[in-house]
Design brief:
Length: 349
């Protein structure tokens, strides 16, 4: 059972006197677009971000064929993404965001998120629910210093409940979540924590998620299903890594797709393989990131991916070995010479 696995991990860490986790069993009106773009440009001062097309470079209109489909809101889609880029700056996860925690470490955070992913799989929920739960956890722990270790799983399971209420057609019953914690917490505990989390984040669940950007970038790249699924795998793995938590969701999405395109299209003998040819002018335009900006992030993700089969926490890796995920975690490219060359460049930096 999911709860038992988390308990065993906690007990093992406790016995070793290290990092134990104690558990027991959109739409933006067009009239506002100019103002929002101006704010975005000011906030994103990095010259390699928020880029536009160079003179003479052809940029494909990826929304040209969507004008008759009202559900795709092609008239407003660029305004919507202007707004999302602004929101991820306004609602950041800061570097070393657990610095104010005396009783909680990044290893304990990883154990919690691995468990959240297993619960997410048990309920067969959409990607947004898992990613939003992680965002809520990080925002709460960033804001509430000295959170008790005994309350960490309570924060996690409540963040998952909030995310499910926000993203799913049907959210799980609280009694089911109590069961997954093996009665460590009561329904009342979860309800009270829900109020505390909402108060802490000011009832604001609008921080964008990597999946919001990944779908847009995949459209710009014209990806095959396997390329997009592999990028989703990379995005989920980054949720486990404390060092990647402070990157913007758009950066995580872009770097994950960049790596996927290289591994499935690249030449194993092409050095580091991180060439501009796999990050087209159209991708650079719609993502607002150059290949140069993405390379350092992409290499960090590559190291995480290569090490995933040997990691102790394997919920995400095991998930993406399944046929419903195109078996992407079993692809030989993830441990081949091209991947090795990309990771080796990371180690040399």
């Amino acid at each position: 059972m999911v709860g038992s696995k988390l308990k065993r991990l906690a007990e093992k860490n406790d016995s070793e006197n290290t990092d134990q986790l104690q558990v027991k069993k959109l739409k933006v009106p067009s009239s506002e677009a100019a103002t929002k773009r101006a704010v975005l440009v000011e906030l994103q001062a990095n010259k390699e971000a928020a880029i536009g097309p160079e003179p003479g470079v052809a940029i494909a209109d990826i929304d040209a064929n969507d004008k008759e489909n009202l559900e795709l809101v092609s008239e407003y889609v660029n305004d919507i993404y202007d707004h999302l880029y602004q929101l991820e700056i306004e609602l950041p996860i800061h570097k070393d965001h657990l610095a104010g925690q005396k009783d909680i470490t990044h290893k304990m955070r990883a154990v919690l998120i691995d468990w959240i992913n297993e619960v997410h799989q048990e309920f067969n929920m959409v990607e947004e629910t898992f990613q939003l739960a992680v965002a809520i956890i990080d925002r709460y722990l960033q804001a509430v210093e000295n959170t008790k270790r005994s309350n960490l799983q309570l924060v996690g399971v409540t963040a998952f409940l909030i995310a499910a209420k926000y993203e799913e057609e049907l959210s799980p019953a609280i009694k089911d979540l109590v069961y997954f914690t093996e009665d460590t917490y009561s329904a009342r505990d979860i309800r009270l924590m829900e109020l505390q989390i909402f108060k802490t984040i000011d009832c604001n669940l609008s921080r964008p998620l990597p999946i919001h950007f990944l779908r847009r970038y995949s459209k710009a790249a014209g990806t095959a299903i396997e390329q997009q699924t592999m990028a989703k795998y990379f995005v989920e793995l980054t949720a486990m890594d404390y060092g990647l938590a402070s990157y913007k969701p758009s950066e995580i999405a872009a770097a994950s797709l960049f790596l996927s395109l290289h591994l499935l299209n690249g030449n194993p003998r092409a050095g580091t393989g991180l060439d501009d040819q796999h990050w087209s002018p159209t991708l650079a335009h719609y993502s607002r990131y150059t290949a140069t900006h993405l390379r350092p992030i992409t290499r960090q993700i590559a190291r995480l991916v290569r090490d995933a089969p040997q990691a102790k926490l394997k919920a995400i890796h095991n998930k993406y070995q399944g046929s419903w995920c195109q078996n992407v975690a079993l692809r030989t490219e993830l441990s081949g010479p091209l991947m090795d060359s990309i990771v080796d460049q990371t180690l040399k930096q």
